[in-house]
């Protein structure tokens, strides 16, 4: 078993572990965002009740509550934006994993002697290549979406 094959296998495992760790971190952050959403929702409900129920309250107090409510809305919008970015990252990780798997299959076919390949092997190789191109195009679309989002936020 040549050294370069062991090195490739080790690097592939390392890349796969890196994707797995990144996916776990994203999942944890999404759960944190969900909890924060609920907390913000509860705070918003309390502030709305205070604003609606307290007719005899001083104008300064109402202004303070209104500012707090606007801050909550702003915070919720920023969390929604972050959640959207994380969902795109999840899709990108899935596509990256899919690309890696297709690449491995394609390498198996390409490492075979051309004279030993059956017509089915050639067809399967072409199908894998088409699937690989589709995955690359999907990743490209995600990159464009991220870039458009970044530019619109500026």
Automatic annotation (TrEMBL):
GO terms for molecular function: monooxygenase activity. InterPro entries: bMERB_dom, F-actin_Monoox_Mical. Signal peptide: none annotated. Keywords: Coiled coil, Membrane, Monooxygenase, Oxidoreductase. It is found in: Membrane. PROSITE patterns: BMERB. It comes from the Eukaryota. Its main location: membrane. Residues 13-154 form the BMERB domain. Residues 23-50 form a coiled coil. This is MICA1 monooxygenase. It comes from Oceanites oceanicus.
